[in-house]
Queue: 4 jobs
Job 1
Amino acid sequence: MRSFRPNRYSLAGLALLGAPLTAEAQSVTAGPAFDVSVTVYRDPYRGEGGFDLDYLGGFALITESRRIELQPGEHTVRFEGVADGIEPVSAIVTGLATGVVEKNRDAKLLSPSALVQAAAGQEGRVDLLRTDPKTGVTTRTRGTIRAAEGGVVFETPNGIEALRCSGLSETVSFEESASGLSSTPTLSIRTRVTEPVEAVIQLSYLARGFDWAADYVADRTPGESTLDLGAWITLANGNGVSFENARVQIVAGKLNRESGQVEPIDIGGPIFADCWPRGSTSDSVEPIYLQQAKGWLDDNIVVTGARMAEAAMAPPPPPPPPPMAAEVVQEELGDLKLYRVPGRVSVLSRQAKQVRMFDRAAVPVTRLYEVNFSGNYSTNFMAVPMLLRTQNDTESNLGLPLPAGRVQLFEQVGEGAAERRLLAGETTLRDIAVDEETEFEFGGAPDIQARQTVENVTLSPERSLPWLPLLRVVPGVNAGSRTLDQINRIEVANARSYDVTVEVRLYLQGGTEMVRADAPYGQKNGRPIFRLTVPANDSLTVRYQTLSYAR
């Protein structure tokens, strides 16, 4: 079952392939999609926070299976209920032996105003039904719409009058809809067949107005060295079309893609009733504005008769969903990562919904605190962020690519009846590969503070260094350059009742190197790093010396 509700999203323009065709093509509607696959590519530039369904920067590859019957001849095959963000140039139809010679995106939707405009001037194609509220008697009068701009004007055997000016309950009944109008976004193709065709065809196309995001929830008990980690995938569909019982995949990674201009969808405008007293066409009164639900038929407008030939047979019942997997299955897609969502998911119109990605218990983590300083730069005391570190491998109960997303940390506090699960911090996670070190960094801890102070700066001639003669033989070296010798002091204070581990990472500018320190240090990602154990209710001081060379 496919449902539709238009939004402000734009539609791609017309794409024509092949030579012009004759006008005798028969209109055939393909059956509704009975098997749908939706692969969502995320917006690579979307920031944190929720989705704006009107401005989703991702897109989706949609593949639908539909049934169709064709007789020999030339046909316009209509696929109703495609996404209103469809890019027609990307559409591929397989299963037709003769192929496709033309593709069109029908941007004008069936709506009250579109029906009125399409029926204007068509003799005897509209019935005006009026119901007397006192007697309940309904009268039907066959007529013709003579004007639809600035007010709807009817001509009946009784004369000319305006819509909704009689004071009675009115219903407008159309004999049939205007050709080419549909209540849902429609893609149409032209094809020729030389023999009867009864087949299942696949329609695949790209559509805008989709996005997805990953959200992680970590549960940790204070004092323990493990946490439970769960992940959710949030799917967002900004289109007016739902894709129910679909097989869903998501793709992580940045995909270079250019988008052209798009054409707005025509969802119809309001219908106006500019009334004048019955029997007079010269004395006007205040206009009446009729309410209209965008894209839907108004309660007082009814379409009777077939809109188009329904050549497609009824779809079979949807296939049973496969057994639910324990978690999303990850595969390689070139340099990107593809995740298959277990079971089937309904990606509904104008909605963001969450599906479970995975649950992992007892993930071992190391809790420590980390502060970053730029070398030779004084700071005030600052709160030191907490870090939970683990390894993304099977030994740590993980071992799958982790897409970038938001992380929420919850901790159990209190005992007995006072025990509560409370939010302890939020952070973001970048894309993490398998076997890569994984760090969750949370906000600064006020009980643990650190600062850096530049204690001493000495500027001395560089020629005093023992290796200067070697540089003199290199062309372009300024022998008059000087050496900047600086000593920095780092202080870390711990106001907690237990020892904590603090890592201090240094950023050193180009041409600067650390030559000595009064505490052991190493290198990580090309940067000097101190790993310090700060005693409870105490502080610790570390000094280091750098040399830099300036001309």
Job 2
Amino acid sequence: MGNNIKIHQHSQNLCDFPGIRKLVTNELKNPAESPTLHVFPELFLCGYPVQDLCLQNSFIDEYLSHLELLNQAFLGAPKSEDLYLLGGLAYEFSKTGIPSSIENVIWLGKPGQKLEKIYSKMQLPNYDIFDERKYFTPGKKSATIHWQGNQIGLLICEDMWPSVHYSKNPLDLLSEEKEPFDLIVNMSASPYNVRKLASRKARARTTSHLLKAPLVYVNLVAEEDEILFDGASFVLNGDDEIYQAAQFAPETKVISFEDIKRKRYQTITLNLQHSWEDLFAPQLTTGKEPRLLPLEDTDHEELIQALTFGIQEYARKNGFQHFLVALSGGIDSALTLALLKLSLKEGQTIEALYMPSQYSATESYDYSEELCKNLEIPLKNVSIKFLHSMVRNTFHMNFSEDFEGIADENIQSRLRGALLMARSNQTGRMVINTSNKSEIAVGYSTLYGDSVGAVSLIGDLYKTEVFSLAHYLNETRNGLIPQGIIDRKPSAELRENQFDTDSLPPYPILDTILECLLSYRYSKDDLVKMKLPEEDINKTLKLYTGSEYKRRQFCPIIKVKTKSFGFGYRVPINKDNKFYFN
């Protein structure tokens, strides 16, 4: 019998030390007949990202006890030729007991022996959602292991993406090894964004050719706050793909070592273009009038899978089984409700609230009712007309002024937010926010009003992408969303004859400008040179730069793009915005 590789693409909770140990010890108790190399994801032993937890004494004590229990499990395990590669942390402490060094490492486990630290991650990403240099000390040398006559090179996630930003290149160090490799292993906790898998595979193929060996890539499956980890582990030999795991689902797979070996590889010169320009390049069409790159059918399916996975994991980890959504008769709340329904698991329920004011159109309720019938979700009609009138009267009575303009518009949204949160408190349902990325970017929402929610499901989709995904859902899921909702002009319905285009540029233009701004690469002059209307540029810049305080107070947004608002977007609230307009 030959040797095997077992890929462990597990879904786990951050810091679930007993659950993590159970997965490992179950494998130790039941060794396979053939020698097996077990490969787990990056930081599997604690979860990723741990952020400031790794500095807290309570975490450190629990984690070190966790390692010691794992050591005992390996020491007491039945003898076998199996080998375990486990991602985790390694601590060194000062004389006063404070961590002097924390490393992101690979622990080597052998039945009958204690765990051994064999490799420390060398390239520590420090951009967007990553801040590994804040916590970790980088490794200084490459690592290989010998197992069953095979030379195996080791990498952790970013080590496969050499860049001008790092002083050491792990791939160059591995390529200097005198003995040829039989396998390269990359253990990752690679966050998801749409179209990410293709770029991972492209880099993995390059790495495989460069080091002239097949490559095993094992990725984490998880949702941590805003960040999704999609799994999608794979094995390839140069350009030949041997295995592809599912996205957004745990999976284990045993593959014969002999089946993945090959002898001939192309000669590759590594291209070091892993940079800001590469990472955050705006996704635009080419041509005289650039627009946001349209979503393909594969992108739509991936997004449905990502968002439904993300919302369920967020709810599970926060202890919610039931959901609450405010419907307006518009496209955003309709798409949110449809995606939430697609995600629903046994025993879970959704309740929808429609809260009309004097400005709500009759068809808004009709569409909301039709949507809820399609989705088999109960709808409650809770008018805010009386509350709105009462607030107006109270304001006039106490301040001797009429309640009008933007204040009158915003109070309607805030009354809805208050009712929504009251219902959430009363029923224990989790409120799902319905704002899109375009609105969040320009502050086209009301603080403590339509911005309320425990999490934003579609907050990383521009308005044009909301329409695109709604169209796709209807084409592939039997017309869940009434066509009238998709066809009507977007409106907040906070005053007579109000439409979004009264306050905002047309969404195709707005979304293009916003995508450019979020890439950090484009100034006003650049946007003008792209033939985008200057009036729309000025309007967008004014709204965008003046809305930072709103974005800072927004709920977590499930991240599905390379550049998103939230955890990876760190811009001061108090700044002079004039430079944007130069």
Job 3
Amino acid sequence: MSDNDNNLGFLIRIVAVAALGGFLFGFDTAVINGAVPVLRAMFTEPGSTFAAGFDPSQVDLIVGQSVAIALIGAAIGAFTAGPLTNRIGRKPAMIIAAIAFLASAIGSGMPVTIIDFTFWRFLGGLAFGAASVIAPAYIAEVSPAHLRGRLGSMQQLAIVIGIFVALMSNLIIAQIAGGAAEAWIGGFAAWKWMFWIEAIPAALYGILALGIPESPRYLVIKDRDEEARSVLAKVLGSQAADAKISEIHGTLSTEHKPRLSDILGPGLFKKIVWLGIGLSVFQQFVGINVVFYYSNLLWESVGLSEDQAFINTAIGGATNVLTTFIAIALVDKIGRKPLLAFGSIGMALSLGVMAFVFNAAPLNPDKINLTVPASTTGSYTINVETRGAEGTIESLPMPITIDPLGADDEPAETRTVTLDFRPVLGESRGTTELVLTELPVGAEIVDPAAKEGDIVATADGIVTKRFTLKPDLTGDQRTMGIITLIALNLFIISFGASWGPIVWVMLGEMFSNQIRGAGLAVAASAQWGANYLISATFPLMAAASLAFAYGFYSISAVVSLLFVLVLIPETKGKELESMGELEDGKS
């Protein structure tokens, strides 16, 4: 076996350990999906101690924030990880993150109230936010320039595998146990095990991190040149190690060691830091995490069953894993910038198709059937109250006429009357729910689709019915549903082969040695902030109109293309020690 083979094997081993942080990052962000319905039910149980005294009517707000708090923790974890790794090193920071992952996994599966559950999710957010900074920095700093893109892409590969494993483990555990709320091993509910499973890779991450070397560039920053020389000799060969150490020293400020203030510039931050922030924000603004956080909600909202939604979600997760290999194969051959540009084009087109389909799809139910007593006749004006996602309420009169039974009609106790909302609502796709009042005495709604809603009140034969209108991609619209599934997976392919892995590669390599920790911390925390914003606003946008939501993501993809073409420099083949040129506006 040649020295080059030994060097490559050593590299792959230590990069794989660092990428385990990415796996946990992906797993932790996705595992919550399987537990949310159970947590919601626990919160609303009469006399529930889990609700910790909160009003059960606030379930969506409280449970939603307990889930979303992990993203706030991630933003804080990412921001603090940069200075922390500069102070104590990349390797100790990995071990701290592993401990936080382990504690969060155990604690999230044994909450007493929604309050301590929120704390454990916040702690998990701190961990995967920190991991999102530590892993790309470490991988970039141990990788030679000609392999850095491919090795850096292992971070994203680990993330998407983590997401996929979390989704599949949730599904398998729920199916074996008979449901997320059902008892499983040891008599503990299945949803608890969904969290506890994460303890295994978390412990493995911490144990393996103990056996990898510290980043050679961090060691040089701390004037530990002999230790750095030992690591670089294993990566680059002994002859190149001394030259590289001298080169690293040349890129560091002679006045002080790296610090957070090094990233400051005339416009708050140096231009290269703003570019990193832009990459991070656009990676989230195209809506990728909507697919993984809300995919089941999306598919069920367009008429698919729960089983069909799980299958479509699994297809999307598998597609995301497989397409990451495209980026790994091409990133060091054709470069970062072309992949980002092609990805933006593919995402813009596929998201645009989805927005078009959702806008054109008929609403279900756009009409419903009532049964009324056979003797019911006359003119009625039903009040159709529409409630938009932004909270606006509009009352629309809907006149109907029920003619007397004809002489030839079969005698019966009831008959059917169809209410068609289309003349009243027009082409609106923004209605989230309808409340029908002033229905004829004795009227009952019989359509299964409408029965999914809640009966708000029944008094004196007057029925008030609330249900959600949603685009229908089933039945006669099955072809449009297939087009939507294809478009969604083309979006995942476009993202997985470009913006998913390439952004992490560039964030790990685009900053100079002097500002890498601080620059990556700011850019990654901006990414988590954007993730939170997109995740929190999707339910509102989707309730107003799925077409609007996906139209926004499509426009973001178009803007990301312009951002890449005009502002992003190519970093393929550049040594980390030459990245300082980018801070001076050179490419």
Job 4
Amino acid sequence: MANLKDLFLEIEENGGPVSDNAVEVYADSVNQALELAAEDLGVDITDLDYEILEKGTKGFLGIGRQPYRVLVVPVEKGSEYDDLDIIEKKLTGEHIPHVTAEEPKNLDGSFVIRVTRSGIWLTVNPPKGTGKKVDLTDVTNKLYSMRISNPNQAALEKAVKEPTGEPVKLGDWTPNPDFDSSMRVEITEDEMAAYVHFTAPRYFGRHFEFDEVIDALKSAGVVIVIDEEAIKDYLEKMNYNRPLVAAKGTKPRNGKDAYIDYKVRVDKSQFKFEEDESGKVDFRNLELLENVVVGQLLCVKIPAEEGIPGRSVTNRILPAKNGKDTTIRFGKGTILSEDGTELTAEINGQVVFKSGRISVEPVYVVNGDVSLETGNIVFLGSVIVSGSVQDNFVVKAAGNIEVKGTVQKAFLEAEGDIVVYQGISGREEAKIESTGGSIYAKFIQSAKIIAEKDVIVPEGILHSYVDAGDRIYSIGKRAKIVGGIIRAGNEVNARFLGAEVSTNTEIRVGINPKVLQQMSELNEAKVKIDEELGQLRLNLKTLTSQRKVSKLSEEKEKMFQELTARNEKLSSRVNEIELEIEELNQYIAMLEHRGKICAEKSVYPGVDIYIKDQKFQVKDEYNYIKFTLEGDEIRLSEYDPPELIDGHKRIALAGRRRM
């Protein structure tokens, strides 16, 4: 029940009556006050609740005695919960729905003494099987410890002798503010929870009941999300060492952002190699490129969700944010629906996904080899070569390039992905470059490979120059990287690195190869300019000496002026190059210590490991190893299998067994 004094003062301040039946009584004790109020109101004393407004004093020999001033209010009837019903439900477990506990066959008898507003109640449960009966002495001792001195002895003895499990009244409750329980409602600052703090009753003090807790919560302003089951459970257990969490607000739930659900594969990072028992990879079944037909659904926009507002325990609305909208970014070869929610293919072709934009490029198919019969191929869509690309031929595509055979000493360039099913045998002169995608090949030998994203090779990279903005993987059963220069922005992962014969192999990670290439080009340019400046300044020195002796001829004077202008121009360019080199060095110094080099089987001597600007020269063979950078040192640890970018899931290599 609510604190009557607070309720009285609050209503009085607002100018309203406390209650039609509330009475203020002056008496020598609280019990006398309740008896007088019961007589005046014509109700039973058990139907009254009270609040002490002024505590009385006995004085000395009657001198200075002050009476108790008590505010008495009748308890409203018609509540769903009655004192005896609550006791019975707690004792029988009926208040816990859908729970049936299997009781043991042999169980000692038990008893419970409850002091409530309606009186002092004893419930004695009979034993089961060979269990012992409740001893009258135990009950008497418990009553004595609770300072209940005048129980109905006849009712007590009968309840113990003939236990029924039903509550038996032993006497009336005697109000005593010093012994009764008290409670205080606390609402958190954000109004998202309401706690009720109780003090445990002492001796024959009474416990609070469900309806009183509900009234106190409502009086404190808690009007919704009251956890009635939690309140009942707490009152049953009477564990006053912790507060009761009586109500919890509902947090607002922000709506999910709109997103694009792609119905075709646009993320090429989720690849899988399938090997047979001998370890050979069926590279033709990788299905790295996506072909579509007219009218095929490419993607659908899933609309943003509206936020769901929350509510505090005081019924204050907590606003929620709606999800952000998005749009389908589309390119040529596609049709967007009028409502902007669906994108379909306008033509037959190959899906190209660049910079978040999806397009369908027309496909140019070469039925056979790229050779003298076809000449060089430059196409604004995707190119499929059913044969091979022979020596000294060029294939350029604005989309993807797919070669069913091999690529020899040729030049391939695509804005999308490049897939070579039977491998690349470049004989030191082949160059394969993807300016916006990845390169997939069965093997690479003696070629220059440059990819904006990944280079994925299941069978090996031999004596090649390979640059990848993100990862270089050679992870088939026979995969190895031997010889050449291998550079990746984030990771190099292979089964073998180097060879038993200590083949010189350079592997770099941690810096985007484009930055390294730019640094190399700047240094080469500076060397050339310095050489030219050296010769130029010798000539200027000679002409300057001649000018001091005599006037130069018209031809030599013209040469002097040209050399002077050239010297100034080259000196200015050297300053610019040195500034660019310094900026790149500062950028490299600011990079995070990322990048790793992994070998599942072995790393052999002759391999030089570079991570960012640190070097580790392999002089001994290492197995199942990973190289990473910590501080200014390259650390060695256990091998880390390759991961997919999307979802960070391990790549499943079907049929693969570690040798």
